[in-house]
Write a structure and sequence with these properties.
Layout lengths: L4 E6 L5 E3 L19 H10 L8 E3 L5 E5 L3 E7 L4 E3 L2 E3 L4 E4 L5 E3 L8 E5 L30 E3 L22 E7 L8 H9 L2 E3 L7 E5 L14 E2 L4 E3 L7 E3 L6 E2 L3 E5 L4 H5 L6 E6 L4
Parallel strand pairs: 12-20
Antiparallel strand pairs: 1-4, 1-11, 2-3, 3-10, 4-9, 5-8, 5-10, 6-7, 6-9, 12-19, 13-14, 13-20, 14-17, 15-18, 16-17, 16-19
């Protein structure tokens, strides 16, 4: 058995393997998937000397605990959280050396939702359709981590970055999502369109990797009935029967039957991945591209 492996001591609420996803398979019903906060995942990879395409771990809210079988270099970023090695505090946002058999603890997020753990060499699970990402909707890729899971690691790519700490954006106190009109905005009343971009919403605790759900004023339809299923894109803002907008994230379905009122700019989606339940949400109309 190779010593290039990582044993999961505590899996946490939801920890998955993620990379940049598997784009280009929507016609097969396969979402893109991949790290929800892609800039954070890319940064921790750079800190340990990996290419940005290497697979990392994405934790949710309460972190995880890991024990490498050989000495490794790790970096933790994304949502700020305490990091320790065998009970001793270690740096967040910087490369850290973890000896063989030592316990790496990635603690609960003190702000935001998702922390990212990169290991030199990357998580080397078998790729599916060109990606190692866990896709919660289609079930592709490795299963979410469980206590006792052992993850293979690749060989280190290069030297860790020589920085004391890498600056990263703080999770949003208010989530501002810039939106362009969606293909079905005519399914909503003029009042609903005004409410959508002028009234505050909040992040619902019911959200997940598939979509960010909101709490707030219901949007009134101008048309009744349902659509035939049609294609859905990353960032689509779909409005289900309860009238509360849902922002589609990386594991979103590739088709859907509820009307799409708007589409969020891709550059705003990493912040959506870090918006904790209760965070105020504002949809800002910016016109068409």
């Amino acid at each position: 058995m190779t010593d290039r492996a990582l044993a999961v001591v505590r899996a946490g609420a939801l920890t998955t393997v993620q990379d940049r996803g598997r784009p280009g398979h929507a016609h097969l019903g396969v979402p893109r998937s991949g790290a929800l906060d892609a800039p954070a995942a890319a940064l921790v990879n750079r800190l340990v000397g990996n290419p940005v395409t290497a697979a990392v771990l994405e934790t949710t809210l309460n972190g995880c605990a890991l024990r490498p079988r050989s000495a490794v270099t790790v970096a933790v970023g994304g949502a700020p959280c305490p990091v320790s090695v065998d009970g001793r505090p270690a740096a967040w946002g910087a490369a850290v050396r973890v000896p063989a058999g030592a316990l790496l603890e990635v603690g609960a997020a003190v702000a935001g939702v998702r922390s990212y753990v990169a290991v030199g060499g990357g998580i080397a699970v078998e790729p599916v359709l060109g990606s190692r990402s866990t896709d919660l909707l289609s079930g592709l890729g490795p299963a979410p981590l469980a206590d006792g899971t052992v993850l293979p690691l690749g060989r280190p790519y290069g030297l860790p970055a020589r920085v004391d700490v890498a600056p990263q954006p703080r999770p949003p106190a208010e989530l501002v999502l810039r939106v362009t009109p969606g293909p079905r905005e005519d399914w909503f009343t003029p009042r609903a369109l005004r409410v959508f971009t002028s009234r505050p919403y909040r992040v619902s605790p019911a959200g997940n990797r598939i979509g960010l759900r909101t709490e707030g004023p219901a949007l009134e339809r101008a048309r009744t009935g349902e659509l035939p299923s049609e294609g859905m894109v990353l960032g689509a803002v779909q409005v289900p029967p309860d009238g509360r907008p849902v922002v589609f994230l990386a594991d979103h379905p590739t088709t859907g039957g509820y009307p799409v009122i708007a589409v969020v700019r891709h550059t705003d989606l990493p912040a959506a991945a870090q918006a904790a339940p209760g965070t105020p949400v504002r949809f800002l109309a910016v016109g068409r591209h």
